[in-house]
Amino acid sequence: MLQAEMQAGKIDCQDEDARLAALASTGILDSPPEPSFDAITRLTAEYFKADTVLLGFADETRFWIKSYWGEPVRERPRKGSVFEMVLAARGPVVVPDVSAHPNYAGRRMMIRRLEIASFASAPIRSGDGKILGTLTAFSCQPRRPMAAEERRMLESLAEMAASQLELRRMRRTFRENGARIRHALEPVTGIWPRKSDLRKALDKRQFVLFYQPEVELSTRRIVGLEALIRWQHPERGLIPPMDFIPLAEESGLILPIGDWGLSEACGQIQRWCREDPVNMAPRVCVNLSARQFAREGLADHVEALLRQTGVPSRLLGLEMTESSLISDNGTPLEVLIGLRRLGVSLLMDDFGTGYSSLHHLHSLPFDVLKIDRSFVTRMAGGNDQPLQIVRTIVELARVLGMDVVAEGIETLEQYALLRELGCRFGQGFLFSRPVTAETMGELLRLPGRILPEPVDSPVVAA
Predict the structure, then answer these.
(1) What is the mean pLDDT of each run of 10 residues along the chain (462 residues)?
(2) Which of 28, 51, 84, 399 has the fewest CB atoms below 10 angstroms from its CB?
(3) What is the C-alpha separation between 110 and 450, in angstroms, rounded?
(4) For the stretch 196-230, what's the b/e string if a residue is b when 16 or more beta carbons lie within 10 angstroms of its beta carbon?
(5) Which residues contact 454 (CB under 8 A, 6 or more apart)?
């Protein structure tokens, strides 16, 4: 926490606390890079003919890059950084020749692979003037001293970034105020649940996992399970995920809820393996939210759970939607490769509803495509398009060496059509609703794990 510098008087403790509070009010460190900042770094690079431009914000120990032009950088140590020079100067810092600057005497200043010879940096301030970050243009060549108009241009670009940051803070405040109003009105209007309700549900262990079988369509043999979360509320009964997952995503509680789901699924696999060590458990697939998938260290977390429970990696599947994979950098592929190395199965959920699938699918290490229920439901409705889409997905998966699971099978007609199209696996109310772990254990004890001959389900899946 920069204690030594504070004790030496270089950084006033109260000023630093106020600065960090202003930074926290923006929520910027919890966000991905934003295109509005990219426009600013690009303009800065073009105007100053810079080799690299970095725009970022500093907490107590790190300088977090939110936009860059040129050399890609994600974060830097705060200690000894350009940010600290700007903070100490309480304004812009211009170093036309790094080799002649006392801070860098006898050593080189590097930005990853680039050796920096000169730079100019301007502060990005909060609405009340606190320095939260910097906009810095780096050059690999010494530069002449910056003219007054150039300095004004750099400060103007930094002010543009500050304006974007202030808009972000205002939006965040508006959302938080709306949440407080909703919380205050809840006894009157009946708005439910609230974030505090979700947190209480976690603390009181009110969430449960139900399991829906994935079957081999030609034999009705259970080949896998999908774990589906429910909220067993002591007064309101069983709450479906659509009634609380959106709030969990919005509030950030989807991360601890998702961690619980992964841990619970691994624990249940362990219990089923212990009960039937000969046949073992089928693969259990857990849905990952976009926020879980984007979090650093996901593969390490999954590996730790597998080691802790002793579950073979082949018995765990991870499902993610196309939207969670959309990114401008290589992070999704890196995460997927890390998970794939563990030996877990990777399933793309709701396939066909996004717009990036065909373009990226060949480069992503998925094992299974899950055809979205919206296509399956409309296959037999007289419109030939959904049927052709399903046929195309099945053929695409065959060419790429992937399995296909059709979701939402509810009628014998859909069942027959999918078999005719060569779809090997499916799940839906026609075979089984999502059931408790206890009921699923009974189904897994059926001879050959083969489900009874299905009849048309009168229930429309939610």
Answers:
(1) 41 80 85 78 91 92 88 82 92 90 75 85 91 94 89 90 82 69 55 89 95 97 97 93 91 91 96 93 93 82 93 95 63 82 92 57 84 86 79 86 93 94 95 96 95 70 36
(2) 399
(3) 63
(4) ebbeebbeeebbebbbbbbbebeebbbbbbbbbbb
(5) 220, 412, 415, 430, 431
